[in-house]
Task: inverse folding
């Protein structure tokens, strides 16, 4: 397997990207293609004594930043590492593409350079998040702030196939529709229409789910529009950060509390790890013709390594041809697995 | 001041409602009118040795449950304690009304029995929530799942006046519009139009706010539609509950961790208290002609007492006539304070 990595995407690029690529190449035995300024990347690797075993390079002369307009990935910055990498994966020169750069630019680039799967209205960004039971997939988490019911229906199919074959290794992933209550009739017109479509489908649809039950692990896939998906994701991050910050205050109060912190150090570090989205290895962009993963903007080497692992699993499970089959069958009115 | 309390609303009614009323009457020197089945309430108070000082009764023969249709508060259950109490507060027989019963029924009852303030499109439910800095008001938190920009604009005015005069005692409360990013152009059509209205207004509008920054205390009032408001509120509750549950696991692991828990007991209890929405005393229904407060469904005596305190402050600050003045001025194109 060959994974193409945008070496210049993210707050800690290119150093942490190179480190993560080296870790992944060693641990998973895959080839990682570093897309970016080859001389600069080689010099940095040499300086930091990072092994180049199983690493390759794909030259790109430009970089797109967080300040650049997302659309510039197709025009002013069409030769940036993100665009070059996306064109390479689209041409079959790699099995998957990863970037920790601008989400908007990556979505734009994936949609127009890798292109949509036939029948997909709009690609969605999924986010794998922690719950008390097991990680779940939330989608859309910001790509489409306004959604039609048919889009939510497609998100459900794509999310179901991704989770069933990547995170759950073949076990069917349950699907819930985010809503303001669990009753069938809850929500606005969009939720009601999406509910009806999902109820009719052959998906393992568990009905409407409330945001309160999502962190408890109520469903493997939680479907919603990009606006409320973004609100859910960021409220979770903000609340966790507020509690962890206050908890730190509890432990740093005095000598006795500092001693207490030492006594539960392992447990606290597990808790912190549970809430750390970097552990989950990035967000799949679903609905385009090749596996594309958005890694967190502040990814460190470990997060890049995890994103590469997820990209490998995404490619190996052949989720994209499963989505193609499902959407074609759905269109023809046949039952969808 | 006379506060009318629905003695039969909530999971722990009527006992905790009576206890809370007695605590409030003693602590705040107000009169609390218990609305419900007087013989039953008197018998319970006697049995539990609860003082009836400053408590009065208003007989209601029926009760509305969580399973009843919200609309039944106006028809099949028009003589329930909630409806009787709402009619009494509308008639000026009390300064405020509180219920921990069905949110839907209370909103319906408040809208049609207490009636809307002239010019208000739709009443909103505000929720006072904890942040790292100070409590903030989130509205709407579920009454209106679909909102027009003008509704969000009115919510901003009402929320601003409520927070400025109730929780901030005259200091102007800042207003933020919940969005998927902080840039002015973020969001869908509704957010963009609401942003333009708010930008033009004389409110202390700080612009778009992200859900991630809300628990950090970015604004005193956070305005959004009922769908994402509900998602934000419930994600916060669900995330806090997941972390607190895991934290419990960390401390109950072994003898050493249990000892550590004892050493930081005070701090942990403060943290739990910070996250406990019952501390904040209930959610105002804004946009109707009299102060109406929705107390949490699982309110205990302390939560009922806190809700009565908030109801007193709501009435004393005369927020409703301030809203009337503001909306009239806004309509006439004059600057609104």
Result:
């Amino acid at each position: 397997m060959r994974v193409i990595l945008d070496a210049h995407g993210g707050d800690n690029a290119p150093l942490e990207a190179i480190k993560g690529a080296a870790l992944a190449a060693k641990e998973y035995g895959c080839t990682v293609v570093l897309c970016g300024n080859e001389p600069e990347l080689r010099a940095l690797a040499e300086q930091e004594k990072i092994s180049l075993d199983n690493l390759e390079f794909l030259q790109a002369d430009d970089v797109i930043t967080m300040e650049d307009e997302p659309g510039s990935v197709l025009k002013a910055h069409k030769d940036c590492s993100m665009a070059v990498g996306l064109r390479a994966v689209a041409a079959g020169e790699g099995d998957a593409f990863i970037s920790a750069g601008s989400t908007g630019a990556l979505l734009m680039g994936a949609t127009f350079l890798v292109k949509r799967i036939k029948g997909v209205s709009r690609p969605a960004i999924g986010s794998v998040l922690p719950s008390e039971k097991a990680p779940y997939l939330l989608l859309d988490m910001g790509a489409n702030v306004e959604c039609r019911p048919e889009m939510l229906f497609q998100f459900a199919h794509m999310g179901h196939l991704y989770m069933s074959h990547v995170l759950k290794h073949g076990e069917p992933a349950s699907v819930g529709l985010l809503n303001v209550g669990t009753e069938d009739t809850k929500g606005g017109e969009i939720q009601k229409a999406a509910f009806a479509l999902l109820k009719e489908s052959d998906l393992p649809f568990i009905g409407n789910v409330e945001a309160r039950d999502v962190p408890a692990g109520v469903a493997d896939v939680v479907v919603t529009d990009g606006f409320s998906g973004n609100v859910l994701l960021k409220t979770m991050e903000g609340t966790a950060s507020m509690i962890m910050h206050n908890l730190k205050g509890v432990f740093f109060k005095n000598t006795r509390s500092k001693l207490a912190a030492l006594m539960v150090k392992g447990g606290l570090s597990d808790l912190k790890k549970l809430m750390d989205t970097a552990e989950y290895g990035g967000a799949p962009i679903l609905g385009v013709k090749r596996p594309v993963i958005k890694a967190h903007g502040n990814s460190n080497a470990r997060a890049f390594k995890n994103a590469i692992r997820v990209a490998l699993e995404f490619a190996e499970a052949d989720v994209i041809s499963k989505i193609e089959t499902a959407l074609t069958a759905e269109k023809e009115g046949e039952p969808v697995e």
Summary: The CA atoms of residues 188 and 335 of chain B lie 27 Å apart. Chain B touches chain A through 57 residues (CB under 8 Å). The radius of gyration of chain B is 20 Å.
